[in-house]
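user:
I keep going back and forth on a fold encoding question. Separate attempts, laid side by side, tell us more than any discussion would. Would you put together a sequence-and-structure record for a protein of your own picking? Write it directly below this note and I will take it from there.

assistant:
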Amino acid sequence: SRSASLPPQRLAKQAAGGNESHLALLVRARQESTRILKSEMGDGAKLLAGFESLSTVDESIREVQEMPLEDEETRDEMKKESEYLKNALRTAKAVSPYIPPGGLQRSIDIRMKNFTYAVPVNMGQQRIQTVGNLGCIFKLYTTTREIRRAGSIDAARAAKVKQRTSRHILKDINLSLQAGKMYLVLGPPSSGKTSLLKAIASLLPDAKCIDSAEDADPTKEATMSGSITYNGLGIDNAEGVILKNAIAYIDQIDRHAPRLTVKETFDFSYQCKGGTHFLPGMIESPGLKEVIAKLDAENHRVNQGMLGLGLDHVSDTFVGNDTVRGVSGGQRRRVTVGEMSMYQAPVFCGDEISTGLDAASTYEIVNALQRLAKTFSTLRVVSLLQPSPETFALFDEVILLSQGMIVYSGPILEAVKYFRSLGFERPDTMDDADFLQAVATPEDMATYYKGSGTCPTPKGLAESFEASEWGDRIQTDLDSPFKHDWSVGPSMKNLPDEEEGGGGAQSSAAQDPSGAGDEKSLVGREGFKKKYVNSFGRSLALNIKRHFTIWKRDIRFIRANAIKNVIMGISVGGVFFQTTKVASIFGVLFQGMLFIMLGSMTSIPGQIDDRPIFYRHSDANFYPTASYIIGVVIAMMPQTLMDTFTFATILYWMVGLAKTAANFFIFIAVLLTFTVVMNQLLSAVGTVSQTKSVLQGLSAVILLFLMLFCGFIITPDTIPDYYSWIYWWNPLAWAYRTLVLNEFLSEKWNYTFEGDDSGLTAGQQVLKSNGFLLPGGDIFGQEWILWGFVYLIAFLVLHTILSGLGLRRVRFESGQSNSPGGAGAGEEGDKEKECHEEEDETFDLPFTPVDLTFKDLCYEVTASTSKEKLKLLNNVYGRLEPGRMCALMGSSGAGKTTLMDVIALRKTSGTITGEVKLNGHLQEADSFRRCSGYVYQFDSQTPQLTVRETVLFSARLRLDSSVPDSTKEKFVDQVLRMMELTPLVDTLVGDDESGGLSFEQGKRLSIAVELAASPSILFLDEPTSGLDSRAALIVMRSLKLIAQSGRTICATIHQPSSSVF
């Protein structure tokens, strides 16, 4: 794999001996690197970035030539490590002759003016919801109690209104984001970083746009006010520009199809955005077609994307997840970044893209982003946690948030100086990024305040910034014309509280009467007027191929279904083997339908897991929703055919139904159609179900009604008239009736009973006696078999449409936090911790210290898509001592987690060789698991339990039975205090679907659950990933206390700050 390197250490030595700071030297090195690349690019940089003359490039070349000789080493190093960018620049040079004069004009400037986003909060809502307190009786009881306390109904209603309030996630945000720059968003947890990025990407959950003059009620629904404009256009504009196609957004959580390879994931994204290197606005000619055809044939962008992210050596490896073995967590994070980088979006928003990555990989990715931003004049806005000084120096400006307000936005070199002017002092041993994070954290800012008077609050810092020169600069930028104005006259749309023209986002055409630049400026917007790049047919084909590939690689699922169908077919057929009883035949047909319904009910919840992936693709306009829905149905047809044919064939011939080819194939066709119909019916229900448990409950109710009114449990002629509509709507009733008619109107039953002079065949007599009659009393005829198919197909089409509407109209946001505090849980937790500190130091449960050694450890696995053997560990040896903390470090994919999993006996596949010893004795599985604890990187707990209940449950199950319950509870309380979870003890854990603890709080809970077992050795997989510097320090401080008690600690660590290390 391509090695990742940080800037030369020589820069640090220069900083130590010179007048410039380390950060200033890093920034200067980045600027020199950018000039070098621009000079190598030549006209290609000018044309693609939209420069209007050669002066900018000429100036860059001149600056490079005039650089002092001592920078030659830096220049050579930067050229050597930028092979990926050189390839990209060579490609740009190849197509640059076909770029029109003035460039493609795809650059976008974004301006936010007085933007505020608020969500409702109900202070009187039950913190812990149960079956009891959600019931009608409990609600009636609480309402009566509130009325008695208030004295009247009106007073009770007024008191309830007071419990509803709103919380500002973002407040009075003013920003001017310019193309060609890199912006870093910093802030403590719950400061609004993610909401700011989503606001820029126009991905905030549905909120009502309000006017400050209106009488709006933000306590009832989410609201937003202010304006966000993109080159003078609002997100909804009269010019028909689909601005979402110009923005790429990277989410915090990695969600991918686990059985697709890295290359297939990249390629699907690339193909959904056109699958060609041709960009709208290029000058079409035979020469351009030849260049584009060559690049398309080489799949250049996909291969370059994998190379640039260091994924080329795992291109054919599954992406994987918790249950499917694939790439490492850090590599999976890079896949997320690369997937949304496959199309050349002028705006890139990345939310904590460094989670799970080592410092070198983070530097390399951000470095590539900033160079491309400079070379092609694109806008990059990225939030990071614990950025290293080298990574921090790659950004042009930093946006610092605290409690939803901007406390600083400006050049990174001026940030520390600005806060020094306010009385804050940065310790010499502290990185600039960590200092800014601490200043924005309410619990920590007083520590670094050395000025006169009291420490300012976040609100005070926000007001100081607005009055500063950097705040004035933003206001000046907001009032200036856009460089590329895509608006036409006064048609630009804003959010309601802005005057016409968008305040600062005024049309440059209005200020430039000549209109000389208008025609050039409008060139870029033409490429974003088409919502979906591909036709519906191509989008459908891509979805079919993708889901068919996912299905065929799930070998266990296919085999399990085959075995299930054979066993069920034989068991049901054996019970009713060659039966001639009418009641048994009715029962067999119904049981066949029931088997299909239960199969659909168990398989549909998997779509809940796929829904976030669809949301991400839909936000980026990868494909129409209909192509996704239909693609899934068609791709799963092979599985449906296999299931139906296997089960139906065995059942049909063992039971001895009508022995004609026509009747047999009609039987197969009915079951096949009904299977697809049931899948689509429950799929439509799944689109409006927030969680799997809700979907299962709704599915059970629907199946109950289908069975009651299908004509088997209650004969059709005895169903009351006021319920008859359910019978005629019921797809099970139509399918079941079709099967009944297919059997009893066949040649097998085409005879008359002895002594019967009614003229009816035996089959018709059976139908009449079992109530299969039309409303007029006539018996159903053969034509109703055809009508059964017609209705089922119509029902299928209707619910396919409803599934699409459900996915488009109903959206469930995941990862919401129900906890009352952020990192550290506030001052209350700090004070409580101090109160119990002496008590915590002396209390512990007995344990045996463990000295662990491992020697010649090797681990081999089979590749994802071939039989090739991959050696992930190669003769590794080492020692973990009691009372010490050992950090496993290395680049993403180096094998850190694999090594820890092998030592901790967490690997269930592959071949492991070598030896592991504990205190000189060979490792024995049962005793080792008893004395060890393992904290996963992405752990999961029972969502319905509180924090204390979760930890106490672990302690009661895993501590020795000789330990009294009172001692266990005391130990649990100590663990909760140590992990600073005491203020959250009565908070529900929750999950990603329904909301719950924040990511950082969940990390500390996972550690507490393992500590509750009082292990001798504790393994932790990236305990600081996804945490800000303060939260990481809290976790590591707690681990240090654990190690000081004599326990052995082993953890994989990514991007440790100096204090953590």
Residues 661-687 form the longest helix (27 residues). Confidence is low (pLDDT under 50) at residues 1-19, 43-71, 489-517, 820-842.
